[in-house]
């Protein structure tokens, strides 16, 4: 072999993973999504052992590992427990700024994740300090719904 | 533990953003050869290789075992518990030796995330595709949400995160596995762009890749080697959904219930009743300053009510316990390897072979591992004394 220096141009091979999937939500989550879509309501299920109301609905309690029973309507009002405001653009994720957070809906024992809208995000520190007060929020449903978690967002309740 | 087991050798590549001069198998080989040389042992003595490789999609390699197999003809297991992969892999190797299946094992971890062009999109895919993934959750926003809870409940401020990050940046300067680690002040942290409020860019870990390998040996073959004995090791899983951990009686999302129970078990094995005085050094697998602070209480270095004071003691240099002498994951967090790096760094400290980053009189050190949305927690206690 002719002498080729080891510090020759390093080869980088471009690649993309572009696999298609469909996630099967199952009967319980499907019922939850259908209630979002057709009734504009958020449901949880009650654990038959620890009696916690799990929102969003699950077929079993993953702490007790036993089936859940009654379907309980939760919210639409609740308390914003924790949140963040994404301030940087990451490839493949939505453009910043946007806020997301976990909300304990009235009647629920667990918190549910969704977008937080209706908050002025032009000053991140000011918006952050406001959301740190664990504000009351309510679920606002999209007029056209498709039976997905993105059918609603949380907005602050007028204080 | 039925049979005393020790860490007899450590091998690490450096952990830059990209290792463009080596393919994945070459990275593994470099770390393996360094670990074998450090332990003064040959591959023929090795009865097991545990491969620790986390999400395939991060590396874009669906055959990631291929490089981590090391050499055909040796028993092989693969472990994946996200960010806890490295420490879970160590527990698997430890267990195999304790069961008497072999006397020496290699724990091999490899991270190749430098390949990824859309890392946060890959991290989004670790969340539940039914209820959570569509809300654009990523590992950074997950950590940021916990930081807001720590600030609400325990009185931390953004200045504490900045102070810890700046402190770790000073330690990182002495770590020769890092390429030109950034050095910055708390003011520079606070002036850096907001990644995900309240987290600033300089508080977070950079993209980093490389391989870390550890040689485990039973007491039967350790001989006169300078080793770090595994005095305690425990691992626990936790429930998946973060929202389910908000109000549970065992502890809230920031109480790190399963890390705290893992530490309790590992401390009991090691005979540690007073962590504050019996532990000299900890390496915490915390990619962000707030996640580091969250672990102090779980490791019983302080009470929840003292967390802010303990943090301030670390920042101003008055705290006795040495935390993250390597600089910690905020300066290199190769996901598959990072929890093993914490253990390897503790082993170097206990053996007195940490080079420029060696701290004086480290007799006992504790390393943590955390994976997923803290679904996986591990705690490993290393010491100079044979158990």
Task: Give a brief outline of the structure.
With 159 residues, chain A is of the alpha+beta class. Chain A has helices at 26-39, 124-131; strands at residues 42-47, 53-54, 60-61, 66-74, 77-86, 98-105, 112-116, 136-141, 152-156.
CATH architecture of the domain at 5-117 and 207-215 in chain B: 3-Layer(aba) Sandwich
Mean pLDDT of chain B: 95
Catalogue the unreliable spans of chain A.
none
Following the backbone from N to C, one meets helices and strands of chain B in this order, namely EHEHHEHEHHHHEEEHEHHEHHEHEE
Inertia-based shape of chain B: globular
Order of neighbouring strands in the sheet with most strands of chain B: 3-2-4-7-1-8-12-11-9-10
Provide the fold topology.
The complex is a heterodimer of chains A (about 160) and B (about 375).
Chain A: H1 26-39, E1 42-47, E2 53-54, E3 60-61, E4 66-74, E5 77-86, E6 98-105, E7 112-116, H2 124-131, E8 136-141, E9 152-156
Chain B: E1 5-12, H1 24-39, E2 48-52, H2 56-59, H3 65-68, E3 75-79, H4 85-98, E4 104-111, H5 119-124, H6 139-154, H7 158-172, H8 186-191, E5 194-197, E6 199-200, E7 210-218, H9 219-222, E8 228-237, H10 257-270, H11 275-278, E9 281-283, H12 289-298, H13 307-316, E10 322-323, H14 335-351, E11 364-371, E12 376-383
Parallel strand pairs in B: 2-3, 2-4, 9-10, 9-11
Antiparallel strand pairs in B: 1-7, 1-8, 4-7, 5-6, 8-12, 11-12
């Amino acid at each position: 072999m002719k002498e080729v220096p080891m510090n020759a141009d390093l080869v980088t091979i471009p690649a993309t993973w572009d696999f298609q999937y469909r996630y099967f939500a199952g009967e319980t989550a499907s019922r939850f999504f259908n209630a979002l879509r057709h009734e504009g309501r958020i449901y949880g299920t009650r654990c038959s052992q620890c009696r916690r109301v799990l929102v969003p609905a699950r077929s079993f309690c993953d702490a007790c590992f036993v089936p859940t029973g009654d379907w309980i309507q939760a919210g639409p009002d609740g308390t914003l427990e924790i949140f963040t405001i994404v301030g940087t653009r990451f490839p493949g994720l939505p453009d910043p700024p946007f806020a997301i957070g976990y909300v304990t809906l009235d009647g629920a024992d667990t918190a549910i994740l969704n977008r937080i809208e209706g908050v002025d995000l032009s000053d991140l520190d000011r918006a952050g300090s406001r959301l740190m007060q664990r504000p009351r929020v309510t679920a606002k449903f999209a007029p056209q719904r498709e039976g997905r978690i993105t059918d609603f967002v949380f907005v602050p309740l007028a204080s | 533990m039925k049979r005393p087991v020790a860490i007899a050798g450590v091998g690490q590549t450096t952990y830059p953003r990209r290792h463009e001069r080596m393919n994945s198998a070459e990275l593994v080989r470099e770390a393996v050869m360094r670990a074998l040389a450090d332990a003064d042992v040959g591959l023929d003595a090795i009865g097991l290789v545990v491969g620790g490789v986390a999400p395939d999609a991060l590396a874009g390699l669906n055959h990631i075992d291929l490089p981590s197999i090391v050499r055909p003809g040796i028993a092989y297991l693969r472990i994946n518990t996200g960010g806890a992969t490295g420490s879970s892999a160590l527990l698997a190797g430890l267990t195999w030796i304790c069961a008497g299946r072999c006397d020496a094992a290699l724990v091999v971890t490899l991270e190749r995330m430098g390949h990824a062009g859309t890392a946060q999109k890959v991290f989004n895919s670790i969340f539940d595709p039914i209820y959570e993934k569509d809300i654009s959750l990523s590992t950074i926003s997950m950590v940021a949400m916990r930081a807001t809870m720590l600030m609400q409940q325990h009185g931390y401020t953004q200045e504490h995160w900045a102070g810890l990050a700046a402190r770790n940046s000073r330690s990182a300067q002495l770590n020769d596995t890092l390429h030109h680690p950034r050095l910055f002040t708390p003011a520079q942290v606070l002036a850096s762009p907001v990644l995900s409020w309240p987290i600033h860019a300089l508080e977070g870990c950079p993209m980093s890749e490389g391989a870390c390998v550890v040689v485990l040996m039973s007491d039967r073959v350790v001989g006169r080697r300078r080793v770090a004995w595994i005095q305690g090791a425990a691992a626990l899983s936790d429930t998946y959904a973060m929202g389910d951990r908000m109000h549970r009686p065992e502890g809230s999302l920031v109480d790190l219930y399963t890390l705290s129970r893992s530490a309790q078990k590992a401390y009991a094995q090691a005979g540690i009743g007073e962590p504050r005085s019996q532990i000299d050094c900890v390496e915490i697998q915390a990619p962000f300053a707030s996640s580091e602070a969250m672990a102090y209480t779980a490791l019983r270095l302080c009470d929840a009510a003292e967390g802010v004071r303990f943090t301030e003691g670390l920042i101003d240099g008055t705290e006795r316990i040495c935390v993250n002498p390597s600089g910690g994951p905020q300066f290199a967090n190769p996901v598959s390897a990072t929890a093993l790096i914490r253990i390897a760094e503790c082993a170097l400290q206990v053996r007195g072979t940490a080079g420029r980053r060696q701290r004086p009189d480290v007799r006992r050190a504790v390393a943590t591992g955390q994976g997923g949305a803290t679904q996986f927690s591990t705690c490993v206690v290393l010491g100079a004394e044979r158990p």
